[in-house]
């Protein structure tokens, strides 16, 4: 065997058979797979004034947020398996910085409705229900939400970060309408909804080959 074959064989072993240890997934602020200066939570600040829903996107972190890799990871407990072998990000979140929205009608709540997505052809783009750090990961369901356009989700007013996953490199976005509804999600009359779009990209493709080249260089030098 020449050196190149040995190195490639070693790389294959390292990247496919290296023992993987189960770990808890990163919290939402640490799901950025790009420039670390863009770590942190990217909130949509929600307000309700005079019957009008207001949405303000917190910036930085910059949009689109960069997903991080879940390839080769073993996340625990089992509900976090959905983050394995995909890209994922949970930086986008819903927040009411002014506390409870006092203008809500009796029995009313805030609802989010998925209104559209963009994604590479043939890709999968999913969302799993998370929560916030104060509740703790144990309280998060990680159930799939927003599976199709028109799917709705009821917000309890606490900070909410969900995990968005994608299986192919590229750009992704999901658009939402935020509206006031009754306990079943039927829109309440007399309120004006607002819309926003969460944008994502996968890490630069150059990042992985460079890391592999670095490993190869190390192995060659060690010989
Ligand atoms: Cu947050």
Q: Name the helix and strand elements from N-terminus to C-terminus, one letter apiece.
A: HEEEEEEEEEEEEEEEH
Total count of domains: 1
Helix content: 10-25%
Which regions contain 5 or more consecutive residues with pLDDT less than 50?
none
Mean pLDDT across the residues is 89
Number of strands: 15
> What is the tally of helical segments?
2
Largest sheet: 8 strands, mixed
Which structural class do the helices and strands define?
mainly beta
Shape: elongated
- Gyration radius, to the nearest Å? 21 Å
Hetero groups in this structure are: copper (II) ion
Describe the protein.
There is one protein chain. By secondary structure, this protein is mainly beta. The protein has one domain. The chain is 13% helix and 35% strand. It contains two helices and 15 strands. It has helices at 3-16, 207-222; strands at 22-23, 42-49, 52-57, 65-66, 68-69, 74-75, 87-89, 92-95, 109-118, 125-131, 144-145, 152-155, 160-166, 171-181, 194-201. Strands 2, 3, 5, 7, 8, 10, 11 and 13 form an eight-stranded mixed sheet that branches. Strands 4-15-14-9-12 form a five-stranded mixed sheet, with no helix packed on it. Strand 2 and strand 3 (52-57) form a beta hairpin. The longest helix is centred in the C-terminal third of the chain and has 16 residues, at 207-222. The chain is elongated. The mean pLDDT is 89. The site of copper (II) ion has 6 residues, from strand 8.
């Amino acid at each position: 065997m020449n050196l190149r074959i040995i190195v490639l064989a070693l790389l294959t072993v390292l990247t496919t058979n290296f023992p993987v240890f189960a770990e808890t997934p990163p919290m939402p602020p640490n799901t950025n797979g790009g420039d670390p200066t863009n770590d942190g939570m990217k909130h949509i600040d929600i307000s309700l004034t005079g019957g009008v829903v207001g949405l303000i996107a917190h910036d930085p972190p910059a949009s689109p947020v960069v997903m991080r890799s879940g390839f080769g990871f073993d996340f625990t407990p089992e509900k976090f398996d959905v983050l394995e072998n995909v890209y994922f990000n949970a930086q986008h979140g819903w927040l009411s910085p002014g506390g409870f929205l006092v203008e809500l009608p009796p029995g009313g709540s805030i609802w989010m409705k998925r209104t559209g997505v963009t994604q590479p052809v043939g890709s999968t783009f999913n969302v799993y229900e998370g929560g916030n750090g104060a509740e703790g990961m144990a309280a998060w369901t990680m159930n799939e939400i927003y599976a199709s356009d028109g799917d709705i989700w009821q917000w309890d007013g606490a900070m909410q970060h969900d995990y968005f996953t994608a299986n192919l490199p590229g750009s992704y976005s999901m658009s939402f309408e935020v509206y006031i509804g009754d306990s079943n999600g039927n829109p309440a009359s007399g309120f004006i909804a607002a819309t926003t779009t969460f944008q994502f990209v996968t890490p630069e493709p150059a990042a992985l080959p460079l890391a592999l080249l670095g490993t190869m260089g190390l192995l060659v030098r060690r010989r």
